[in-house]
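can u do me a favor
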């Protein structure tokens, strides 16, 4: 029994001592209990704790991506806003003087610049996608002899684009929906120089490349207002059909695609940013003044200009179809003098393109305008005629001006002679002597027979 008591005694003492030891170190026991309980607890609570953790990670990613999107938007929008603000300021500061914006309808104004005095008035038509500044040298030289006017077609240079509301039935028509075809360009020219500006006819029209199509179309429609046309390196309808469409492919690869790229970089403001940072292709100054160079950079940064240039090129087939239809309806007036200026082939383009261009110009000289004055300028390409051979063009245009002056003088002399003859006939009828009417003889008294 004692053995039992002695054996239970230590167990009782060990049992009594155990609460003391456990109460003296509660943290350890709690830590160990918690540590032992953690695996079962974590396994039970894993769905509830993983969801907040995933949501926290997703929210952090969204916040980081949100800031990234903000940075991208700022990087994209800032050049556009800067370019738009600069264009608005430059539009007023860099506009050439003398020159003015002429309103041709309620929603559109065209820029026109006139120099010199005298008659007939010379009207200059720029090539495809170009503004009036290509005639800078030629216009200054011709202004010493007569009045010369250059202008920017719709959307080009400083001119405004036409507003076309395609939701209205009258604006959805085929003609009203394509303002950059020859029909609309000739109509805009008539409104500009005849209706709004009131320039006295007859005009001498000088057209380069696409401008030659506009001058010919204008002369056929408004023949009473034109005295002569000068076609410089003319674009001829049907040229796209020669040499299996070589010219059409050339336009697509060397003009349409680069112009669309330039339009995109100008609209995004990247081109102006490139000019500022020096990353864009440097603009050649040549003999231009600082103001002329700034004006050229302004045009290069103008997305509306490049959009108009792209549309002129994109609709060139429609333009050619319109002038071909006009030739079927009406022949070219024989009383209008025609001069054609051609140049050498361009070594930078394919032989097929050069051959097609020459064949079309030969068709123009031999078939469309037989008897015209044809001048071939050697040692220069058509693209550089205005820059390198302006003196030759100056002489040819002055010859056309002199012809128109002689024609106007002869017409005036003929009208004066006719008026003088009419007045003489009237005076003869007025001053003719009145025939003398003799009185009747006196009546004899009847003879009386005695």
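np, heres the sequence
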């Amino acid at each position: 029994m004692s053995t039992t008591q002695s054996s239970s005694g230590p167990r009782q003492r060990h049992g009594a001592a155990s609460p003391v030891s456990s109460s003296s170190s509660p943290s350890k026991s709690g830590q160990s209990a918690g540590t032992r309980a953690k695996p079962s607890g974590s396994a039970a609570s894993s769905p509830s704790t993983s969801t907040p953790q995933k949501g926290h990670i997703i929210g952090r990613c969204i916040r980081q991506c949100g800031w990234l999107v903000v940075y991208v938007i700022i990087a994209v929008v800032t050049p556009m806003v800067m370019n738009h603000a600069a264009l608005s300021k430059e539009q007023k500061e860099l506009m050439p003087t003398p020159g003015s914006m002429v309103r041709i309808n309620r929603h559109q104004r065209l820029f026109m610049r006139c120099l010199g005095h005298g008659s007939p008035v010379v009207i200059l038509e720029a090539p495809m996608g170009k503004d009036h500044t290509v005639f800078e040298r030629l216009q200054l030289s011709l202004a010493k002899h007569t009045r010369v006017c250059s202008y920017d077609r719709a959307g080009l240079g400083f001119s405004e684009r036409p507003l076309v509301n395609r939701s209205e039935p009258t604006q959805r028509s085929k003609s009203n929906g394509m303002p950059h075809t020859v029909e609309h360009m000739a109509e805009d020219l008539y409104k500009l120089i005849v209706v709004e500006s009131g320039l006295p006819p007859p005009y001498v029209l000088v057209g380069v490349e696409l401008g030659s199509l506009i001058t010919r179309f204008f002369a056929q429609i408004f023949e009473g207002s034109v005295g002569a046309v000068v076609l410089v390196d003319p674009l001829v309808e049907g040229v796209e059909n020669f040499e299996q469409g070589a010219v059409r492919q050339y336009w697509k690869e060397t003009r349409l695609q680069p112009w669309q790229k330039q339009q995109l970089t100008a609209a995004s403001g990247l081109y102006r940013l490139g000019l500022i940072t020096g990353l864009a292709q440097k603009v050649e100054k040549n003999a231009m003044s600082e103001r002329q160079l700034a004006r050229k950079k302004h045009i290069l940064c103008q997305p509306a200009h490049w959009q108009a240039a792209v549309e002129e090129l994109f609709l060139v087939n429609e333009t050619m179809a319109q002038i071909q239809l006009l030739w079927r309806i009406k022949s070219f007036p024989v009383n209008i003098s025609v001069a054609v200026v051609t140049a050498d082939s361009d070594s930078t383009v394919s032989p097929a393109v050069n051959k097609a261009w020459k064949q079309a110009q030969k068709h123009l000289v031999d078939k469309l305008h037989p008897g015209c004055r044809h001048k071939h300028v050697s040692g220069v390409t058509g693209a550089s005629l205005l820059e390198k051979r302006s003196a030759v063009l100056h002489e040819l245009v002055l010859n056309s001006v002199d012809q128109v002056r002689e024609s106007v003088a002869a017409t005036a002399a003929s009208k004066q002679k006719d008026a003088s003859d009419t007045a003489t006939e009237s005076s003869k009828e007025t001053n003719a002597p009145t025939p003398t009417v003799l009185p009747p003889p006196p009546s004899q008294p009847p003879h009386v027979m005695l």
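Residues 1-47, 169-177 have pLDDT under 50 and may be disordered. hope that helps!!
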